């Protein structure tokens, strides 16, 4: 990915569905996250879905992109492959022939509007993130990434510690 090593990792976990903040609290939250991220070369790690607190974080990242184009924030979404809406479209290699899909009444192209409808349990990705790690355990519409995020953060911290304090 060729991104700078983080000096700080901020793992942002919050309600995906029932999330509300007052305008003042949301502004303070966004400003705080962004200020810390920019000053400390932090990586923001979220679930990557465009809902709840992660949506607010994405809006903050977008604000930075618009107001300070030379500044960048590394935001990594860790999500489940089987829960991402239109994952095939996102990851598909261009110029592949359209698939024909047989539904109960018709043969339809994979680009047909009928297929673009979100299936219950699928989420849109928050597109202001700079990177995504999609985990695939074969399950569909299942969000839980277990302790992967925690283990990743711990491993990154260990690597950084070894760089800062070799031989310890």
From TrEMBL:
<dbReference type="InterPro" id="IPR050927">
    <property type="entry name" value="TRPM"/>
</dbReference>
<protein>
    <recommendedName>
        <fullName>TRPM SLOG domain-containing protein</fullName>
    </recommendedName>
</protein>
<dbReference type="GO" id="GO:0005886">
    <property type="term" value="C:plasma membrane"/>
</dbReference>
<dbReference type="InterPro" id="IPR041491">
    <property type="entry name" value="TRPM_SLOG"/>
</dbReference>
<feature type="domain" description="TRPM SLOG">
    <location>
        <begin position="1"/>
        <end position="156"/>
    </location>
</feature>
<dbReference type="GO" id="GO:0099604">
    <property type="term" value="F:ligand-gated calcium channel activity"/>
</dbReference>
<dbReference type="Pfam" id="PF18139">
    <property type="entry name" value="LSDAT_euk"/>
</dbReference>
